[in-house]
């Protein structure tokens, strides 16, 4: 299925996958596949375990609704909390380190450029490269957040359970066979509420991915920010940003009773993207920011994100 977008770009899953590389050609280090995303009580850093304990305890339907209101954009004007350029937002993220990631202890700007460059070197289209550059920028929410709401990005030891980490669908049973640290599921208040603790919870069968509420984090915020600012990245790229952290869905196959046949193509796009998100994480993968930035400024402008934007 192909769709036409701005700048005469064509989005075609089959054609894009022709440029897809094998995992060992994407990787920028010698780690084995099983050494990525290792989560267990014995070897996972304590900060990561605590992150997921809090995330599972506090990410509920009520919390999602409160964050959606707090971070809303005016449907008419797109107005949000503050106007910044992409470059200014990157500057704000300079010292942010993700407390939920066991694979990387580098600032997010470096990870974003690593992802974008991996996509670029694989020969994928410009819109996909830009998606790689922007996909984690929603963590900028820490500017308006606090530790109580899981958005303390000023301190790498702060609570960040509503900024990063694997998301899951709130409002229905949390799949124990698809989430990391399933022992924390019972801590979630919604799992003791009959409206939300069943297989379907508050949803109808096969209602579709776009009608589900994911645990609130940078994915949903950044998706909403890009839509509000009327960016020209195609839906496929926006979906990558919106759903890339939902590992229970795209990695473990959960929620098929809630998704549609159309969501299967979205799943393929997200899987394609996530290989670059995961396998380019490398503290030895040197990125020359000043040398690369001019190229990405061109993409930012091409896809309607130049100048001041609402965040």
Largest sheet composition: 2 strands, antiparallel
The radius of gyration is 18 Å
The class by helix and strand makeup works out as mainly alpha
Strand order of the largest sheet: 1-2
Mean pLDDT over all positions? 88
Any descriptors?
311 residues, mainly alpha, two-stranded antiparallel sheet, 12 helices, globular, disordered N terminus
Set down the secondary structure blueprint.
Elements: E1 2-4, E2 10-12, H1 13-18, H2 23-26, H3 46-58, H4 61-70, E3 83-84, H5 86-92, H6 108-121, H7 126-134, E4 169-170, E5 213-214, H8 218-228, H9 235-243, H10 247-250, H11 263-279, H12 289-302, E6 309-310
Antiparallel strand pairs: 1-2, 3-6, 4-5
Helix pairs in contact: 6-7, 6-11, 7-9, 8-9, 9-11
What does this entry look like structurally?
The protein is mainly alpha-helical and 311 residues long. Helices cover 38% and strands 5% of the residues. The protein has twelve helices and six strands. It has helices at 13-18, 23-26, 46-58, 61-70, 86-92, 108-121, 126-134, 218-228, 235-243, 247-250, 263-279, 289-302, and strands at residues 2-4, 10-12, 83-84, 169-170, 213-214, 309-310. The strands form three sheets. It has a two-stranded antiparallel sheet with strand order 1-2. Strand 1 (2-4) and strand 2 form a beta hairpin. Helix 6 packs across helix 11 and helix 9 (235-243) packs across helix 11 (263-279). The radius of gyration is 18 Å and the shape is globular. The two termini are 32 Å apart. The relative contact order is 0.19. Mean pLDDT is 88; it is low at 1-8 and 18-24.
